[in-house]
Amino acid sequence: MTPNEKRQQEWLVAQVKHQESPFGQILKGWRANRGFSQLGLALEAGVSARHISFVETGRSQPSRDLIIHLSDTLRIPHRERNMLLLAAGFAPIYTETDLNSDELKNHRRVIELILKGYEPFGAVAFDRTWNVLMSNSGFQATLDLLGLNETNPEVCDNVLKLLFSPDGLRPYVVNWDEVGYHLIQRVHREAIDGGEEGRELLNALLETCDIPSPWRLIDVSKSLELMVPLHLRINDVDMRFFTTITTLGTPQDITLQELRIEAFLPADLETEMLIRAQQQQA
After folding, report:
1. Is-above-0.85 flag for pTM?
2. Inter-CA distances, 245 with 57, 110, 213, 270, 276, Å
3. Where are the beta strands (DSSP E) in 186-259?
4. pLDDT by residue, tens only, the chain of 282 residues
5. Which of 74, 187, 244, 272 gives a 20 to 30 Å CA spacing to 195?
């Protein structure tokens, strides 16, 4: 091999080594998603900007501890942390356990107690794609009142379907423009953190439901309202609710981290009295 050929080979090897690694591509995406420059992330995480640059380009191999530390800094969900670990050649450290398994029976009991604590008002536990996992009697009473469990059970197993489908709650929502806009913007934002499943959920919603054109793009010009009332009109009776969302502490399991409990609480005395009266008649 001539000196010139040797130098050319060394240059090619260097280029391959310095190509952006799969780990680096994912990390760069999350860094951009959170609005950090390499320097900004370095300052926030307490590491050198040069090291951030090297792990993104593949010139340095990140340690598992560094991956976890950067994930904490960037608030990366557990499911996507596993992807980062795999991309860097490490085994995943976060498990995903079936909620109905024996391993989570104590956690399931806690969720049941939380749901029951909201009664007679409705509450529902759902996963990151809004599939209903558990619900309380107040939530089921609303579905029964509308006959949805009997006439359209397929929309009752997913909170988004229930709210956006014309066969669900949508025809009964008086302030749909306000509620629908807030909800679709929430889905847009969650799709950013939700990986491929989150994007598929958003696309399915846009394709199957009648979504106004302005709602089809994320609106980053303003933050979401802290509280959007839900105004239902059922059989000429007005009911107004506000919602609260509960998540579980700092779980190390993917299923538990992604689980949310949403409660529909009366926004006025009339709605509260009506629900309590319905409970007594049941």
Report:
1. no
2. 39, 15, 28, 23, 22
3. 230-234, 237-246
4. 555 555 555 544 454 444 557 889 889 989 988 899 999 999 999 999 999 999 998 888 999 999 999 999 999 989 889 999 999 999 999 999 999 999 999 999 999 999 999 999 999 999 988 999 999 999 998 888 888 877 778 888 999 889 888 888 999 999 998 888 888 888 888 777 666 777 787 888 888 778 888 888 877 666 666 678 899 998 888 999 999 999 987 788 999 999 999 999 999 999 999 899 888 876
5. 244
Distance (Å, whole) CA 200 – CA 204 = 6
Cα 96 from Cα 199, distance rounded (Å): 20
Architecture of domain 102-281: 2-Layer Sandwich (3.30)
Distance CA 275, CA 280 (A): 9
Q: Which tokens belong to 221? A: 């010009």
What is the three-state SS of 170-187?
Answer: HHHECCHHHHHHHHHHHH
Q: Which two tokens stand for residue 69?
A: 């530390």
Residues 6+ apart with CB under 8 A from 30: 74, 76, 80
Q: CA-to-CA distance for 76 and 193, rounded, in angstroms? A: 8
